[in-house]
Every structure is written in structure tokens, then in C-alpha cells.
Amino acid sequence: MKPLPAPELIPTTDTLIYGETLYLQVGGAKDRWLTGGRSDGNKRVYTRDGEGGDLESSYRWTLMKTRDTVGSGPLRYGDIVYLKVGGDKPRWLTGGRSEGQREVSTLDGEGGDMESSYQWTVMQSRTAVGSGEVKRGRAVYLKVGGAKDRWLTGGRSDDNIQVLTLDGEGGKTEETYQWTSSPVNYSRVFAVFAEDSPDTKTLAPGMNTRVFTRVEACSPERSIRLDLKTGVITVPPGTYDISGYSSVVYLTGQEADGMVTNKSPTANGGYCRLRLAGGDSETIPNDDPRVLVVGSICTANAIPSMVRAWFSTTVEARLILEHQSGESTERIVQRHKSTTAQGVSSTWHYFARLSVTRV
């Protein structure tokens, strides 16, 4: 039986993309998938039936451009890829090893001495590289670098578990060289970021980037990342449900501990917006394609601007949340560190929060 995935992600494209984790099923054998990182040293590679999902991570292979770089964008015929197996230790598929260039293993890179043996050229057949993007579910051939005409072949031997790199054998066992991809359904990917008050920070005229100070929640693989210096949130490919709020307050300097000032009868209006990072905020209008959503109207009397958006990307994307309250922002702050009635300094004043979930 096929290894059982966690039941969530629906792929957003019909093309394989770098950074995607997938299963590889070999042709010619009944229900056999590539599995690696096995046994002592996490070296062994087999084609097995899923084993009831007990070793799920060993069936997951991540497409990478190098051993150090995941990369982004669509996979194309002729690309050289690295295949990283799931599990606790970093292991990549390597072939064309030993005498006869037949051995296949999962190893840690060996310092680059055998780098070409980790490189796999994606081909349409053993005789044609092919061209264009590789569609999901299309059978491919994987030719190992550093060896003379050796392709990955599996489902071998009497029990259909052996994996080798061989020369094609004149086409006698052609199906065993064909690897069909199917997407892994990822477990839920999510993160929640907040901006509390480690200090008091004034609001400048125009758009201000929210620099989040706290990671409140994050899924175990931590693929959604926050730069605490810039406020930039980086998300991997996928479709996202994003929601949150952003607020500011007046601060005259005359407030008692723990207090802020409400301005009456009128107060600065404003709103937040979520956009792709990069470029000058002042030259990016709200109808620019880089702006994903504009938040609800708010005032500087601690009434927040609410934001909700759906966002799809086939490449890694960088996001920022911004807030503006007009051009006259005297005595408006986007953070306020104050003290409690007991004179204790407190950072528990939240001015922004953003929840990001891949669906």
C-alpha cells in the first residue's frame, strides 16, 4: 500500500516545482515507491510498498537545485536536480557508485568529492532529453551524473525492492527506468507573527512597514520565515489564507502609566495593506499588482485596520504588512512601551498580528 500522507495540500500548478516534496513510483512493479535513508547510516535505498505508512518520511523526496539551495520555479526537462530524502538527517540520492557504476545510496554529500553522483538529469526518455516544463504525474527518466549512461532503475530482483543505476539493458526492462511523480499532501503549514512593544516607535508619514517582534506560533517544519530586523515574511510555494490587524495610538507624553490618549472630536484615519516586499512604498499605489490587499479603514484611536487575503504563488514569496495614518502623524506611535500601575515595564501591548496558513 502507498505510504499515507497527512491530508491537506492541494497542488496549485500542474507543473512540478522546485522545493516540492513528492513520491516517486517505479513502473513495471506493482505499487512500489522509492524509499531512502534506510538502515544504519541512513544509506540504503529500495522500492517498497509503503509499509503501511510507518516510515512515511523515507518515501518523501524534495526537488532541489543544489544540495544547499532549494531553488524556485518550474522543473524543466534537461534540468539537473538533487533529491533530498525526508527524515531527521540530511541525505541526498546518489548513484553510479562502486565498480560497474551500479550502486545507489543516500549519503550526506561527502564534502563534494563525488558531487556529480548526486546530480540527476531529468529526461523524457533514455534517448531524448525533452523540452519544456515537466507536468505533474508524467513519467521521467533520471540519468546520474559522473557515470557513463546510467539511469535510475527500481523494482528489481525477485521481491521488487532493488534500486540500481544501469545502462538501459537494451530496453528489455524499460518500465523499471520510468519514475512517475505524485505530490505529497503536506501537513498544515502555518505561522502567526505579532508586533508587541519592546520600545516606543513613532509613526512616520506615509506607509510604515510593520516589523514583527514575536513568533507566536509556527508549524514544525518552519517553512514560513520571519526576518525580525525587516519584518519581511517569506513563504514557500502554495496557496495561503492570510488574516490580521494593524493599529496605532496617540501619545502626548502626558499620559499616566499604561494609558494612551484618544483624540476627539476628530482623529487621523488610515489603513494597513499587505504587499510583496521590494520597491519604494511611496511609489507603489494600492492598485499595483504587488499589493495583495488593502485593510479596512481605521483611526489612530487604537481602532485597528483589519486585513484578510487569499494568495497563491508558484515560487518563494516575500511579504510585508504596512500601515499609514496620513501625512500629519505628530504624536502617533506604532508601538508604545509603558509601565504597569506597579511600575513594572511591560511589553504586552500588541499593535499588529498576522496569521498565515497554507491551505
Describe this structure in words.
- Residues 93-112 are annotated as: Disordered.
- The protein is mainly beta and 359 residues long.
- The chain has two domains: 21-183, Trefoil (Acidic Fibroblast Growth Factor, subunit A); 189-358, Jelly Rolls (Sandwich).
- It has no helices and 29 strands.
- It has strands at residues 21-26, 33-38, 44-48, 61-64, 80-85, 91-97, 103-107, 120-123, 139-144, 151-156, 162-166, 179-183, 189-195, 201-202, 208-209, 214-218, 225-226, 233-235, 238-246, 249-250, 269-276, 291-294, 298-299, 305-313, 317-324, 332-335, 338-339, 345-346, 352-358.
- Strands 15, 17, 18, 21, 22, 23 and 25 form a seven-stranded antiparallel sheet that branches. Strands 1-4-5-8-9-12 form a six-stranded antiparallel β-barrel. A five-stranded antiparallel sheet has the order 16-13-29-19-24, with no helix packed on it.
- It is elongated.
- Residues 1-10 have low confidence and may be disordered.
